[in-house]
Amino acid sequence: MAEPETANPLRDALASWAHRNDAALADTTIAAIAAAAPGLSGQLDQGRAKLAGIIADQVDRTLGLCAGLPERLASDEFSLKAALRRTIRIAAGLGLEIEEAEPEAPSGSIEILPLARFSAIAEARMDEIGSKQGAADDRDLRAAREAHLLTQLKAVRPLMLYGRVVADDTLREWRGEQQSSFAANCSGFADNAAEAKMAALVGSDTLLTGDAAHIKETDAGGVVILHRCRLMTLAEAGLPVAEDGPVALVARPPQPDEVRAAPGQGIAPDRIDRVLYDATFETRMDGFGNGYVHRREDVYVLLRDGTAWRHDWPFPPADLDAGLSQRRDPGKWFTWSESGSAVTLTGMENGRTVDLSSSYKLVPMPSEARLTATYRFTDIGIMGLRRDQTLAFSEDGTVLYSRDGFAAGNTGTSFVIADIGPGVEHRARYRFDGYALIMEGPSGAERHFFARLDGTDANAPEDVIFDGRIFWGASDKTE
């Protein structure tokens, strides 16, 4: 993995200032004015040389002259924007057109870049502007790094990236227990066939092409967002793959089948201090005038040894390989402390805190419990997308699980109604074992995370938590 650029506070501050004040546009404006005014260019060069000499002399003679300059550059004292706007207006009044230079296309043959190799190149290009360490606390520096990389990538049309389709719009390269620090995300496809093809290739390696539209830097790496995405095989492309050179890799979070231990061989019940559920539900409007529910639901398992993790898995804690999870997915692990009724988590990886003072305690169902109730989950997303799930428990000791979805909403100038995929329905015998709902059907046993809110009737809870999501009783409002 490429070594990150060491932080240089003054260099970082200058890069942040340059981006914040459109310094590149200022240079372009001055060059355009100089080209239209004979003799001005020479005078500017002379002035720059004289000023550089004065500055160098003062720096040599005055110890610590630049101390505090990073902070001063962030103040209005060195703001260039107002002066630049006035200069551009004057230039426009004189009939001068200020056009930013187009990025130069790279020389040499076009290569296919595995995403791990692309990641190293991307990080190195951003480090040309300023350090990643400095960008963590300076959004202008981060934006400057992103803009610098994007400018260079826009000269490469299309980008050709190779990796694994990890979602219906996202590509990332996997190498064992590691993955590329950058992902490629498609915000638009060349046609419907390309979009359908990517959805069908989830879990497979493929070549993705597209035009760079945005860069989003993250703590671990980043995302290059592409327009006009297409997919093809390496054979169809017929181009060389850039195998040589440094790569940038980060720990790859485990997949469910990797972090799942044998049934009941994960976290022992006597190690658990408590399980907490923290959630927010907000009604919002999308850009087409459709209402939707923004929901955040998190389950945290707190252990007696003072550690905790965010349980994002559909199976119970008793089936979690905690060692593998902590090694491969450290961002989900915390230490926890309690003051009165308030619980605070502190991230083991980054030190960030999570306040769980408004959370709800979850408790397991009694092993002998038998339910005669129906619980429903409804999720309404943007563009009228809706998915419904139902758990219908019967007196005969079986549960009927069903799932379906559809879209009904405004999309641009049209109102669309359509089914989303085939529905699912199956009946199984069930039993409870700690935080597990075990559903036994013709295809075998399924073990799901299941709990109720503390203080509710163990034999007839109003609401339940299934696979980390709240399912409301049939008489409750689900929207």
Structural commentary:
This protein is about 25% helix and about 35% strand. It is elongated and about 95 Å long. It contains 12 helices and 25 strands. The longest helix has 22 residues, at about 40-60. The strands form 3 sheets. It has an 8-stranded antiparallel β-barrel. Strands 2-3-6-8-7 form a 5-stranded mixed β-barrel. A 3-stranded antiparallel beta sheet has the order 4-5-9. The model has no long low-confidence stretch (mean pLDDT about 85). Helix 1 packs across helix 8 (about 140-155), helix 2 (about 25-35) packs parallel to helix 5 (about 80-95) and helix 6 (about 115-125) packs across helix 8 (about 140-155). It is α+β, with helices and mostly antiparallel strands. Strand 13 (about 335-340) and strand 14 (about 340-345) form a beta hairpin. It folds into 4 domains: about 10-95, no CATH class; about 115-250, OB fold (Dihydrolipoamide Acetyltransferase, E2P) (Beta Barrel); about 255-360, no CATH class; about 375-475, Lipocalin, CATH 2.40.128.
Estimated share of beta-strand residues: 35-45%
- The number of helical elements comes to 12
The helix fraction, in percent, is 25-40%
Indicate the low-confidence ranges by residue numbers.
none
Tell me the number of strands.
25
The strand order across the widest sheet is 17-18-19-21-22-23-24-25
Q: Would you give the CATH topology of the largest domain?
A: OB fold (Dihydrolipoamide Acetyltransferase, E2P)
Whole-number count of domains: 4
CATH class of the largest domain: Mainly Beta
Q: Structural class, judged by helices and strands?
A: alpha+beta
Sheet of most strands: 8 strands, antiparallel, barrel
Kindly report the average pLDDT value.
87
Question: Which of globular, elongated, flat, extended, rod-shaped describes the shape?
Answer: elongated
Q: Whole-number radius of gyration? A: 28 Å
Distance between the termini: 47 Å
Please state the second-level CATH architecture of the largest domain: Beta Barrel
